[in-house]
Amino acid sequence: MSIVFLVIIITYGGANAYIALRLHQWLSLLFPQINSAVYYCIFALVALSTFLGFLPIQSDAKKVINWIGAHWMGIYVYLLIFCLVTDCVVVLCSLTGLIPRPLPQSTIFLRGLTALLLTAGVIGYGIYNANQIKFVDYNVAIEGKTLSGDVRLVLISDLHLGAVHSERNLEKVIRGVNSLEPDVVCIAGDIFNGDINALSKPSRDMELLLEIKAKYGVYASLGNHDGGRSYDEMARFLSHCNIKLLTDEYEIIDKRLILLGRVDPSPIGGFGGTRRADIADVLSAMETDLPVVVMDHNPARIEEYASEVDLILSGHTHRGQLFPGSLITHAMFSVDYGYRQKEADGPHVIVTSGAGTWGPPVRVGSNNEIVCIRLR
What we know:
By secondary structure, the protein is α/β, with parallel strands linked by helices.
């Protein structure tokens, strides 16, 4: 694990050094009197803010650092991409004789300006898009089991309450959920962002969550960010919000279907001793022919489910959140987003991109969404 961490630090540090050099070359042309030492110190502090937020420092200062670090992560991704792209274009043009060597100052200036403008445009769009909520609909027909009448499930996940700007959209999400008039609301994990004490307005958040209206109730499963030292407080918070947390437990909904919530297999900081049970043991306790719906936050283990389960609801992937992250999640997961049924007698799978953001409050190539599932 330490080797992986070291590789990440070296890669991140090297990429930031490359970006810092390219920006310095551009700024030196715009401001010839720029103090290089001051510039690199400021740049280093901004780049390190991503990690400084984990230090035990005073609360208000930590919020500022987290805000800078979260936004920098989004800016860093696209500055790196566009600096590399513009460098490649300049090199190709130089090799073909379209640009002379050594590079004219005008070319260096335009290269930097292009990378900055493209980054500003994408980040500006991404921040705007992260404040929008999209609605997605699926119709799922359960074969071989009796379902007395259609059931409307509304699925959300990955609220990441406590992350930067995470609470700003909560009212919009709750309003959107209620507009669908759900029979059951399913929250498939990562309700919190690892620490309930990071919530800026916990009382307001609780009031909003209490406003969710569902005919047969609101249920949640654990995500990997719903653990840590404040896990017990998180569980109590959900209970006060009338959200029933299912930890490898199931609920029979109106004698029409079974809703099972799984414990995430890789919690950050643990779930206070609660561990994921074997699925065979969980299913063996269900002596019924009712349809089985499973909330399992991470879709990495959907292959462990067979015909005993009818529908799996997951989140976690954020659909990459920042393009080209979707290419990575698509390669990592058999289903990283959307709907799939691999075999005719196998479970239906729906993976949502989530209703919130983790890390940078930016969405590019993905959306915050609320999913409505008509089960029949």
